[in-house]
Amino acid sequence: MDHRIRSLSEYTQAYDKSVENPEEFWGEIASSFQWKKKWDDVLNWNFKGPDVKWFINGKLNITENALDRHLETRGDQVAILWEPNDPNEPHQEITFQQLHEKVCQFSNAMKNNGVGKGDRVIIYMPMVPEAAVAMLACARIGAIHSVVFAGFSANALADRINDCGAKMVLTSDGNFRGAKTIEVKSVVDEALEKTSTVEKVIVFQRTRTEVTMKEGRDIWWHEAIDGVSSENEAEEMDSEDLLFILYTSGSTGQPKGVVHTCGGYMVYTYYSFLNVFQYGEGDIYWCTADIGWITGHSYIVYGPLLAGATTMMFEGVPTYPDAGRFWHACDKHQVNQFYTAPTAIRALEAHGLEPLEPYKLDSLKVIGSVGEPINEEAWHWYHLNVGKGNCPLVDTWWQTETGGIMISALAGVTPVKPAHASLPLPGIQPIIVNSEGNELTGKNVEGNLCIKFPWPSILRTTYGDHERCRQTYFSAYENLYFTGDGVKRDHDGYLRILGRVDDVINVSGHRMGTAEVENAIDEHPKVIESAVVGYPHDIKGQGIYAYIIAEADGIEDEIRKTVTELIGPIAKPDKIQLVSGLPKTRSGKIMRRILRKIASGDVSNLGDTSTLLNPEIVEELKSGKV
Ligand code: WT7
Predict the structure, then answer these.
(1) pLDDT tens sequence across 61-96
(2) Domain locations in the chain?
(3) What would the CATH number be for the domain defined by 508-623?
(4) Is 227 exposed, middle or buried (0-12, 13-18, 19+ CB in 10 A)?
């Protein structure tokens, strides 16, 4: 099976076919997988419900396609190449055969501990191969995994456990990150005090940090698999059975559980991986994301393994032991495709070229970017110094909700243009609309980015609250999926993502709802009201700026602590301005436009402030800017 597009004309052909006959197009790609039973219809959909189903009544198990299917042809090929936090600790190479055994064995261990099809399992683990094993074992037995980034606080973890009613938590004793050792199990313990559904916790031993093990509830990973068979018959899943839930922030306070299902997600992550990165036999592919985010799900674990790729997993951080770590690892493992975030690029750029000097980077063929708009400066630095000017740089636009890459060049096949995500993948039909929902056709237009036709890995619902899914994504414009991003189609017809148009900010590639951060700030007993906006930040892309009305002075650090406790360090405001009031309209709405402008230092033209109830506050805000 090879669905790799190799030329611009093949791309055009594939794209046209995917629009003219989507069912035939995706049906052909899906046919190359192992199905326990073939589907009746390829697609059934409406965006009103929304109700989208792909490969209807098809039966499969995604792990048979990611693992079993490869055993005959590539059992001895490395599936997961693991690079530890400490470069002096040996790396690990796990072949498809070995990964299959580990997944089967852990599947049995999970079953022995009472988990089965349809149960929800939280994975709160560091970047060790066992985290991937955990995800795949869930998928194999039909349990629905929900990975929570191990930087989230006990509170945030508890919210997610409660929202999905998880029965099991998979975790570790601790987590090595750079020079730090972070406690993990104790965070789980704290979270579990606020939840009641979790029956068992399986703890992987990584740091040998001292932990308390609760009798009857907590089991060590190595004991759970001790003597357990590594043969396991994969559960038969329907195409539309839930594969996983992944929580993500939106413009309202509570994160929502984005739901992806087995069949469509499998087909799309495979196809997009292969084509965007132009993965070839024997290549070593490395995505630096964390499995706590969708990038880790789709392009460290599922996409690459489905394509039979060697996928590298990195436990550490880009600056440990020094700012050359990424480049050291690229040379050490002869990485061919390298995929990272603009925030990492900008952080490394700030260290200058010296950390790059000892390394050749001559194995690299493709470099990629994801998570936020990449500014032209960072694009050129990355292209020139990492890609040595001759690696195609793919700027990949997508979202947790889209499951896979939607708009991107196909490396070396379709043209690239600095800071442009460029063209949609086959099967993806973006349209640009104005605020009235009218399509903006032609070139040199700017508006809101929507998608007008389903693709196999579109989110199906938000867990436990379908109406919220409809409201958030399918109600702004009739019959369109609304992404929340602004976009420009330039004079050449290439798409450039302009960033969020809603109350969502993007901090170091992490999505953050301003309302969510405000809710956390407001929990501080001395806070009366707050308003959070993003502002341009050299490294993070956007920083978090909080305007706060409080009953006391000098409480900035306490507020930061509150936010860290309630969400995690990633949501901590970079700047806090204590104010006596917030600019409000007569209807009591905060005029965020003004707050954004002041936070970004752009106060020359604040627009019309005459509708404000308290126009005098603007001067105070301007003069007190931090
Ligand atoms: C939001 C989705 C999808 C992987 C990681 C983030 C922004 C993502 C790009 C890009 C400009 C981008 C968008 C999007 N975004 N990739 N290449 N260029 N913006 O996933 O947390 O679901 O966030 O990230 O604003 O809506 P996420």
Answers:
(1) 999 999 999 999 999 999 999 999 999 999 999 999
(2) 8-317+396-487, 508-623
(3) 3.30.300.30
(4) exposed
**Element (DSSP H or E) covering residue 418:** none
CATH class of the 8-317+396-487 domain in this structure: alpha beta
Contacts 24+ apart (CB under 8 A), 208-211: 208/173, 208/174, 209/173, 209/174, 209/181, 209/183, 209/185, 211/173, 211/174, 211/185, 211/186
Q: Is the pTM of this model over 0.90?
A: yes
Instruction: Name the residue type at position 526.
Output: K
399 Cα–ligand 1 center, Å:
5
Burial 67-82 (b: 16+ CB within 10 A, else e): bbbbeeebeebbbbbb
Kindly give the distance from the C-alpha atom of residue 400 to the centroid of ligand 1, in angstroms, as a whole number: 8
Question: What's the CA-to-centroid distance between 520 and ligand 1, angstroms?
Answer: 23
DSSP-derived pairing of the beta strands 256-261 and 242-248: antiparallel
Q: Is 372 in the pocket of ligand 1 (CB under 6 A)?
A: yes
Say if ligand 1 is within 6 A of residue 420 CB. Answer: no
State the burial class of residue 281 (Cβ atoms within 10 Å of its Cβ: 0-12, 13-18, 19+). Answer: exposed
